[in-house]
Each structure stands twice: as structure tokens, then as C-alpha cells.
Amino acid sequence: MFDALTDRLTSVFDGLTGRGALSEKDVSAAMREIRVALLEADVALPVVKDFIAKVKKEAVGEAVIKSITPGQMIIKIVHDALVEMLGGEDSDPSLRIDSPPSVIMMAGLQGSGKTTTTGKLAKRLKEKDRKKVLLASLDTRRPAAMDQLAVLAGQVGVESLPIIKGQLATDIAKRALQAAKLQGFDVVILDTAGRTTLDEQMMAEAEEVAKIANPSETLLVADALTGQDAVETAKRFNERLPLTGLVLTRMDGDGRGGAALSMRAVTGLPIKFLGVGEKLDGLDVFAAKRVAGRILG
Ligand code: GDP
């Protein structure tokens, strides 16, 4: 996903480590190249500006330039700044599970991978955390989406709320909570309705559901391949819903991955998981250090 960015940064770093001494001018030139590389990778401009300002401040210091291996030190500074940009070393991607039934609400645009991610999370909660999971689709406008979630639940081996046609999303949420209480489920995942564009009705409905269900996690699923649109989507959802984290899907694709890099800095929300394939095991726990390492090659 970050191949092009990795190639660009590697060549900048090769230029820095290839010789012993560095001047302030060399460092400034390298910073300009890193700036262009980040922008070309689709990292949001304000994020790039902050990043470069921070790295430059540290990198032009006497201690770096006069050191025996200035290039190595600059690589380390860039690495640490990337980790920071992605949420920091101690960022905790684990899900908050309250006393049962704990609710996880999934939000996002149609086609972002929301339902698939719901299935992936159910699998993870069942197999890794040994939780009894109930899935419920609130997509009242698209019967196919409801059926899709039921099929996924079957594949994972968890239960899904029986579908009753004609119910409102808020009523389905209430029914899911009731069923979870009565039947001893640990976690209920609510797969809310998505639309193809940001739409007032979708937002209002999601807000209502959040009020009723009081989720311990409200995750926004965003398609990383949609670039700056994904960042804009996250911003807009964050204004309306009590989001607790992000899931970025299609990170297995070969597009420019920079939008994903901006997400944390722009929204302030932690990235919790990365979708890395269509299959149900295609979900990676997000770790800022690992992703920064991957970017630097
Ligand atoms: P929804 O409308 O947001 O619920 O989206 P879906 O869950 O139906 O996903 C839309 C399409 O994206 C499906 O074909 C999924 O298999 C695919 N998809 C979802 N997540 C990923 C991912 O992380 N990687 C890839 N390659 N495809 C994904």
C-alpha cells in the first residue's frame, strides 16, 4: 500500500546516509523531497506541514549534523515522527468491552466495507476473546445488506438477530439489546445503514441509534482507497457521532495510502484496525510502530 512512498523515502535516505557530514542545506533539501513524497502519496497538506516542521526542527540541530552518522539520526527522527502521526507508540487499538451486553456500533458509507468488517470483528471477538456475539443489521432500506450480514454470521458461527421486515432501525437496535440481555450475549454489533454519499437522514438515524444503544465503541469504517474523500467522510461522521475509533479498509490495495496516514492527525481518532482483504481473517490490529516501519521499508 505504501510502496511508492517507501521507494521515494528510501532514495532520500540513501542520499543522506551515503556520505559522512551533512550541512543544513543538505537537510533542508532532503526535507523538501520528503514533503513532496508525502504529498504525492496523498497525505493531507496540513498534516504534511506539521510533520515537516517537526522533523526539520530536530534534524537541523547541531547534535544531528555534527554527529558521526547524521543520516541515520534523521531516519530515526522521521520514523519517530511517523509513529507520532499515526497515534504514538502506546496507542491502544483494543476494543472497549463493557459489562454485557456491550454494544459496538459500525458506521460508514455504503461500500466502505462496513458489513464485511462487522463479520471480521465478530470472528475476532469469538475466536480470540471468547465472546458470545450477536450481529444485527439496521439497514432497513437494503434487504440484501441484512441478508449479507446473516450469511456472514453463519460463516463466522455467531448468531444474527432474526430479520423482521418493516421495522425502524431504532426498533431493531432495541430488539437487539433486549435479545442480548435475555440470551446472555457479551457483545452486540450493530451494522448501521450506509448510503453512497453523506446524507442527513443517514446521520440522523445513526445519531438516534447511538442514543438508544449507548455503544462502548462506535467505529467508523472508511475505504482507504478513496483517499482524501475518506478523510472528509471521517471528519463529517465525527461531527455527528460519538466515534471512538477508525477502521481503514482495502489497505491490501495498491493505491496511494497516504490518506490513511492523515486520518489520525485530522480526526484525532485512533485507528483501531486495518482491513487487508475480502476474507473474514483479513483484519489487522493497527500498530503505529509497525506501519511506520513498513513505510520506511
Ligand atoms: P458495506 O456496504 O460498507 O457494508 O460494504 P461491504 O462490507 O459489503 O464491502 C464492499 C466490498 O468491499 C465487498 O466486495 C467486500 O468483500 C470488499 N471489502 C471489504 N473490506 C475489504 C478489505 O479490507 N480489502 C478488500 N480487498 N476488499 C474489502
From TrEMBL:
It catalyses: GTP + H2O = GDP + phosphate + H(+). Keywords: Cytoplasm, GTP-binding, Hydrolase, Nucleotide-binding, Ribonucleoprotein, RNA-binding, Signal recognition particle. Its EC number is 3.6.5.4. It is a peripheral membrane protein. It comes from the Bacteria. The keyword Ribonucleoprotein applies. Residues 270-283 form the SRP54-type proteins GTP-binding domain. It is found in: Cell inner membrane; Cytoplasm. GTP binds at residues 108-115, 191-195, 249-252. Composed of three domains: the N-terminal N domain, which is responsible for interactions with the ribosome, the central G domain, which binds GTP, and the C-terminal M domain, which binds the RNA and the signal sequence of the RNC. Belongs to the GTP-binding SRP family. SRP54 subfamily. Involved in targeting and insertion of nascent membrane proteins into the cytoplasmic membrane. Binds to the hydrophobic signal sequence of the ribosome-nascent chain (RNC) as it emerges from the ribosomes. The SRP-RNC complex is then targeted to the cytoplasmic membrane where it interacts with the SRP receptor FtsY. Interaction with FtsY leads to the transfer of the RNC complex to the Sec translocase for insertion into the membrane, the hydrolysis of GTP by both Ffh and FtsY, and the dissociation of the SRP-FtsY complex into the individual components. Part of the signal recognition particle protein translocation system, which is composed of SRP and FtsY. SRP is a ribonucleoprotein composed of Ffh and a 4.5S RNA molecule. This is Signal recognition particle protein. It comes from Ponticaulis profundi. The gene is ffh. The chain holds residues 1 to 297 of 500 of the full protein.
